[in-house]
Write a structure and sequence with these properties.
The chain is an alpha+beta fold. It has one domain: Pseudouridine synthase, CATH 3.30.2350.10. The chain is 16% helix and 32% strand. Strands 1, 2, 3, 4, 5, 9, 10, 11 and 12 form a nine-stranded mixed sheet that branches. A three-stranded antiparallel sheet has the order 7-6-8, covered by helices on one side. A hairpin with a 3-residue loop joins strand 1 and strand 2. The longest helix is centred in the middle third of the chain and has 12 residues. The N and C termini lie far apart (38 Å). The relative contact order is 0.17.
Length: 226
């Protein structure tokens, strides 16, 4: 059964959802199941017909907060905020190894991997600017718990960037070493979202706690042998 997103805020301009892992945002080649767009049918609009309301995305197996437009006007304004990096998107991730710097920025263009089109790579084909700001909040025996803020939002950006510096996201089957600490997906959660309301201009801010599978994996990681 397809997991369902939780609506955490809704008015006539925006819908904020907490997306579970396993839910695809919108239809794409090769995917036939229910999507987030299907679940929000009739209450979101604006943008292309195949992905109404969508102004930014999360990977299928990344959980957490998204804002979706409920009108064409809101879609235009939220898209403008995303383009100008005015939407604050914060993530919590667990990465392999101990990151040497307690904070920093990974500034490396990301494009399609030249050998495997389903992957992204630093450089790659038709690379686009990509900047990921991070702060290590806890060093565990074998991993680092990291808070990330996206300046840009390229496909698989966090997963690609941390893989490129030798600290792949724990559990990531594509850029890392697959299952770990009982996880069946990558340890990546969109934990905080902030933006200006597209109609009123009021500052909107939302937080999301780690879902149960990530919280359990974090507990196991803390108890692991060095």
């Amino acid at each position: 059964m397809t997991p369902r997103a939780e609506i955490v805020f809704r008015d006539d301009a925006v819908v904020v959802v907490d997306k579970p892992a396993g839910l695809v945002v919108h239809r794409a080649p090769g995917h036939r199941g229910e999507t987030l767009v299907d679940q929000l049918a009739g209450i979101v609009s604006g943008g292309p017909d195949e992905r109404p309301g969508i102004v930014h995305r999360l990977d299928r197996d990344t959980s957490g907060l998204m804002v979706v437009a409920a009108s064409a006007e809101a879609h235009r304004e939220l898209s403008r905020q995303v383009r100008r990096h005015e939407v604050a998107r914060h993530y919590t991730t667990l990465v392999e190894g101990h990151v040497a710097s307690r904070s920093g920025t990974i500034d490396a263009p990301v494009g399609r991997d030249r050998r495997a089109r389903e992957r992204m790579a630093v450089g790659g084909r038709r690379p686009r600017d990509a900047r990921t700001h991070f702060e290590v909040v806890e060093l565990l025996p074998r991993e680092s718990l990291v808070e990330v803020r996206l300046e840009t939002g390229r496909t698989h950006q966090i997963r690609t960037h941390f893989g490129a510096i030798g600290h792949p996201v724990v559990g990531d089957p594509r850029y890392g070493h697959g299952p770990r600490h009982g996880l069946e997906r990558q340890f990546l959660h969109a934990s905080r979202l902030a933006f200006a309301h597209p109609r009123t201009g009021a500052e909107m801010s939302f937080d999301s706690a780690l879902p149960a599978d990530l919280a359990a994996a974090l507990g196991r990681a803390r108890e692991a042998e060095p």
